[in-house]
Write a structure and sequence with these properties.
With 299 residues, the chain is of the alpha+beta class. It has helices at 44-52, 62-69, 76-83, 121-134, 139-151, 186-200, 209-220, 223-228, 295-298, and strands spanning 23-27, 38-43, 87-92, 95-100, 110-111, 117-118, 157-159, 165-167, 175-176, 230-234, 241-249, 253-259, 263-269, 279-284, 290-294. A six-stranded antiparallel sheet has the order 10-13-12-11-14-15. A three-stranded antiparallel sheet has the order 4-3-9, with no helix packed on it. α2 (62-69) packs antiparallel against α3 (76-83), α4 runs antiparallel to α5 and α6 packs antiparallel against α7 (209-220). The mean pLDDT is 93. The protein binds zinc ion. This is HNH endonuclease 5 domain-containing protein.
């Protein structure tokens, strides 16, 4: 069964704030990391607050990018999309620079400690023209300087006149700094809560202390309380997939969330039991195919 077209929801109340509202399409696993499972059960206000709040840095979180990177070229499009805006460090002689990776997969311009300027190669000619122009060079001098730049050997300083000295840096690999904010525990908690809601259907609106507390944690963006409900681990996975599983009541309802196969979160719902067989959602990130399987139906 392919379910990526979106699941129907038969109520008009938001599952988080419980208010009657125009419900909006919610990506249960954030779309920014390739999630495709959707359901219209969040109001616009809750949806936007989550998106601009604890979900905002999900794509760029170091553990997310490292987990995606383990799968090499098999999910290269998604892996590369996660890196846009990430910080990279590069060394030039005794100088280091950090810059964000742009959409065109190039690190932006940056000034080094010695006040020299690093410019992406395809923007260098434009920069040389404007610097020389500002220093009063004639068109002929500028054209001749551009020619000298084009012919300059790599890793060698060349004086273009008017105080402009260039160096064509080559073989200067950039390395991710991985100093972006860590993944918020509210992300796996939200995924697990929404999956439980899918299983419960209309029963999610019944008065229940545990569900009410999870709603409060999500609404208040209370990361410490979210942390207390989650056990984080690393799994070995050979295939890249996103997954969510209701694992049964042990004795509390337990949901496992897996991102990129290896990032594993076990979410506990204290004092909550759900009378249903274990049920698993998987999304193969190579083929884009997703499915929900119930253990009861399979046996
Ligand atoms: Zn709401």
């Amino acid at each position: 069964m392919t379910i990526s077209s979106g699941l129907n929801w038969n109520d008009t109340r938001c599952i988080v704030c419980m208010q009657e509202a125009d419900l909006s399409i919610e990506h249960i696993i954030p779309r920014s990391i390739g999630g495709i499972l959707t359901c219209s059960f969040l109001c616009k206000s809750c949806n936007e607050r989550f998106g601009a709040g604890f979900e905002a840095d999900t794509r760029i979180a170091p553990e997310i990018r490292k987990a995606a990177g383990q799968h090499g070229e098999s999910i290269s499009d998604l892996r590369d999309r996660l890196e846009v805006g990430a910080r990279y460090k590069q060394s030039f002689g005794d100088n280091d620079r950090t810059a964000e990776l742009r959409k065109d997969r190039v690190l932006g311009a940056a000034k080094l400690k010695d006040s020299s300027l690093i410019v992406p190669e395809k923007e260098a000619e434009q920069k040389i023209r404007s610097m020389l122009g500002k220093s009063g060079a004639s068109d002929r001098e500028i054209n001749s300087a551009v020619k000298s730049w084009e012919e300059a050997p790599p890793n060698t300083e060349v004086d273009l006149g008017h105080g402009v000295v260039i160096k064509k840096w080559q073989n200067h690999p950039a390395h991710p700094t991985y100093d972006e904010p860590a993944l918020s525990p509210l992300v796996p908690l939200k995924i697990a809560f929404e999956f439980v809601s899918l299983i419960l259907g209309g029963a999610v609106y019944q008065r229940n202390h545990t569900l009410q507390e999870v709603r409060r944690i999500l609404t208040d963006q209370d990361e410490a309380s979210a942390d207390a409900l989650i056990e984080v681990g690393l799994a070995t996975a050979t295939a890249p997939f996103h997954g969510i599983a209701f694992q049964g009541n042990r004795p509390n309802a337990q949901v496992q969330v897996r991102l990129f196969g290896t990032l594993r979160f076990i979410v506990e719902f204290p004092s909550l039991g759900i009378k249903t067989a274990p049920i698993t959602y998987t999304h193969d990130l190579r083929t884009g195919v997703d499915e929900i399987r119930s253990r009861a139906r399979a046996s």
